[in-house]
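FAQ
Q: What does a multi-component entry look like?
A: The components come first, one per line:
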Amino acid sequence: MKTYLNPKDWLRLTERPSVKKSNLNKLVNEVFKAVKKDGDKAAKKFSAQFDGVELKSLQVNSKTIANANKQLSPALKKAIKLAKQNIEKFHAAQNEESKRIETTPGVTCWRESRPIEKVGIYIPGGTAPLFSTVLMLGIPAKIAGCKEIILCTPPNKKGEIDPTILYAASLVGITSVNSIGGIQAIAAMSYGTKSIEQVDKIFGPGNQYVTAAKQMAQSIGIAIDMPAGPSEVLVIADETCNPSFVAADLLSQAEHGADSQVILCADDDKVVNKVLIELKKQLKVLPRKTIATAALKNSKAIVFKSLKDCMLFSNAYAPEHLILANDKANKLIPLITNAGSVFVGNYSCESAGDYASGTNHTLPTNGFAKAYSGVSLDSFVKKITFQELTKNGIENIGPSIELMAEAEQLFAHKNAVTIRLKNK
Amino acid sequence: MKTYLNPKDWLRLTERPSVKKSNLNKLVNEVFKAVKKDGDKAAKKFSAQFDGVELKSLQVNSKTIANANKQLSPALKKAIKLAKQNIEKFHAAQNEESKRIETTPGVTCWRESRPIEKVGIYIPGGTAPLFSTVLMLGIPAKIAGCKEIILCTPPNKKGEIDPTILYAASLVGITSVNSIGGIQAIAAMSYGTKSIEQVDKIFGPGNQYVTAAKQMAQSIGIAIDMPAGPSEVLVIADETCNPSFVAADLLSQAEHGADSQVILCADDDKVVNKVLIELKKQLKVLPRKTIATAALKNSKAIVFKSLKDCMLFSNAYAPEHLILANDKANKLIPLITNAGSVFVGNYSCESAGDYASGTNHTLPTNGFAKAYSGVSLDSFVKKITFQELTKNGIENIGPSIELMAEAEQLFAHKNAVTIRLKNK
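Then the predicted structure of the entire assembly, as tokens:
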């Protein structure tokens, strides 16, 4: 970690570590083409080839899912249920009531939400079974009323899926769990196969292969949640922070992956020094020490003149997670323009949002917080607009429409009004 | 127009006329690369090359914008102001109040909206000056509080922009109007040049070049409104419709472009026949007859057993515009699952929504209504989530987070909680 001071450096400091952009398009194209043509057969072939696992059936049967329940401790199940309850409360409150607006007498407009009927959820495999992401995507999908919630996740070499993932899937009401990962999983959900239904939108994190495949899915007309990049946190601390808390938060981001980035902003170099001392201490005993150490190489501690300057820098950086590790939240929150999710005060650690506070942990990374929101109930619905005009309504706005349509040289548009006005 | 009856044909009938997918990627790549490197110089070079117009300055000066006012009739200005007022009312009502939810005692979560700071609006040139789209995109951007609203539109061969576009831009408060179109306009807004600021999100319709350029913008991290396709309408009519109104609505969609598609669904072939007779009559006297005739070749009239079946077919088709030309709206609206914008009853013509009812006319085409909403106030903001935990809050959910983090093998995540729980 380095210390900077000069505001001229701001823009440069907002740059993310450059990710080697491998050109996977050729491979992605090939897999998509094969899955489109040969469906399950191709999907299974790629799973054998890439993941070294041979499967008879892609779909996990209900007995296996039901049995997963037995493999979790009662305490863990209780914890997952608490998280579910909080995520449900917060996302259900995002349901918007339909307001009818009479814009002109006789002209009423409103919006109604409808669920996206079929959604796909991708859960990565690898070292950690990310069952928390099953909750974060499955719960709002269920609240929205999505009919089909298709989950794909790669099995281990024995062809098994982690029981915590199966338990979470069953708890939230996933309609179909499939043992398949990587490009072939995204391709299967994009085109549909005999086992895996075609979906309208695909959600979930993944490695570079999955990210490239989701981009391909988007280019052929399947919606995706948001563009993906490595995870990141920015902490704004002052003397009112608890340095050991801040160090723990920085490390909990750093352990995600070697490409994670953590930024500490403070208005005082003493604060930074205290945090760095704690950081070294805590790093030593961390099981994922190697990953965290690599991530810390991409990371920065920056001292600014004031907390306000820290906030302005944070807005330029647009962090996925922003922790306000100080007691000035009331002054800082109105200054926030760009962030994915904000953790207010010393007791609001990022882990809380990652698992159980109730907010969603699928958030915009890589500066995308400038234009994208994190996943919410809105991500699983469409808002359809409606308008109802009475005879009086078209009389009131019809003449204006005629003039505007004429000015745009769209005479059939004009005529659709004229013919109604004449029919008084 | 053809008449079908067999429900087996449904899926096939939802297919859009195949658009010849020209591979523009090479050209788009070239323009983006040049504009990234040479900024305005490259942008001007491409405008000369593609649009045959040589410009000293890309930005339209304030005097020209102010003078546009004089070139519009008072009646047209009044019409535009009425439209503005209705669009403002409906979009301002979409502002969502921040609800604070206590998910567990001591754990409070909420969302706050923040404007996307810099947005770009593309307005196509061509035969008709689409000033209505300036209203539809500029007004919600202004309500959202976007700081920079950059408009790009191609000038004519004399280097001029239609005064109605300039008037609308000035009326809604566009911050910068630029005489530039095509791929180079999208590239300029994506990278930023000396004249044109880099934006966070690009909105607006366009031809295949603009569509390909927006896809490129998206791939380099600039958000876009939605994927684009030819415009379309689906009308559900029964004996309570007015056949001449329905014919006028079908034609107002058909005149948009030769690639437009119009679908008439009815529960009775007599209704279809009556509409077709009216259609022929009205088509004869239409200025854009050639375009409309071409579009009608892609179009279909389909007779179903019931209005409910019409509605089910409409959901499978997922139309951009859905007109309920009958008096059964109360029964049909709850059945709608996929549509961009809905026009309820015989007096609600599509032109009303295109210009002045208050709803947005930037809508998902090509079946994208299955997963995408039309443009709304939401399109111009991010919703940032917040969580604030008290000491008591972390005590209540902390032990659950510890268990879940451990189950995901993320020990630093666990430690961020443990260290806070110990600090009681």
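Q: Is there any commentary attached?
A: Sometimes. For this entry: Chain B has three domains: 2-17+230-358, 21-224, 390-421.
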